[in-house]
Request: fold
Amino acid sequence: MKTIKTLVLASTCAMASAGALAEKTLNVYNWSDYIAEDTLANFEAETGIKVTYDVFDSNDVLEAKLLSGKTGYDVVVPSSTFLARQIQAGVFLELDKSKLPNHKNLDPAMMAKLATLDPDNAHAVPYLWGTTGIGINVGKVAERLGEDMPTDTWDLVFKPEIAAKLADCGITMLDAWDELVPTALNYLGEDPKSTDTKLLDGKVKDLLNGVRPHIKYFHSSQYINDLANGDVCVSVGWSGDILQAVDRAAEAENGVEVAYIIPKEGAGLWFDMLAIPKDASNSDNAHAFLDFLMRKDVIAGVSNYVWYPNAIPSSKEMIDEEITSDPAIYPTPDVEKNLFTFPVYGPKFDRAGSRMWTALKSGK
Ligand code: SPD
Reply:
């Protein structure tokens, strides 16, 4: 009898401590190169919550997990246009704002814009934002095009005769058709939000096929190191990632000078959002993490490290001036006039876009 009692007690204790353990964990799925080196350690030290952290570099990869209903994550970071359709698919928990005292720190103007995609901002809060432009190796591009050739233009990657001159030093593109298609449409003088499949399979496809032979690879994270090391010389990429390449090259003192360009024709503007999947097993901890990231000192630390602006205006005073004064990071009103947001694609255009992209990448 005594043995049975002891066993019951022991297993009750084991269950209780397993429960306590589960309560002290958090599984986060974020973009690669998108958090400061001390953010997670600081959160763990303050809260006692142990974070398991995985990374991705594609909205499509994250979306596939979300739509499967079994992500295994408590916090994920979709871009706002993907978030909008994922909300409709019912994959997120509604946020409990009583557990987010720092929600008041968010930029009201940005929240109003984001509410068009997430009514009442019910399911997500903005994390970081940026633009999709071009990173160049200043020296190698000048060697090939001449010192006087303007580099503030999408001609670098969309005009075959120019791309041909740059091909030997390596042109790369994000593996993200949902950004390259609107960017190509805008370059062609069309509405970047167009969902006309005739345009997609006509002018857009022709433009991209025209430069396809000059593209070294399509990838959405490898270009940071490759630009910094001088292994590629022109990358269509995300602002902060290219600025991280600028920084890595400068630190390496390897003679490579990288610059980020928002081309004069305009560039895509996007917002990445923090949300809690419905299958989250630690939703209280997820709220605690979101709230932590909305603290001005914490998010300023992230912006200082990854070179992306955030959604907490009061954090700006804690961000390096080198970052806040750079119009490629914090666009001035003049630059802003040329920025466009990406559309929320429905299933029909989504299929057509992925099909066109797969064919393009395989060189068909
Ligand atoms: N290395 C982090 C990059 C984050 C980019 N988010 C991109 C969203 C584009 N819609």
Summary: The mean pLDDT is 94. The longest strand covers residues 124-137. Residues 31-34, 79, 179, 238, 241, 270, 272 surround spermidine (CB under 6 Å). The beta strands are 25-31, 50-56, 75-76, 124-137, 171-173, 215-218, 234-238, 258-261, 267-275, 339-341.
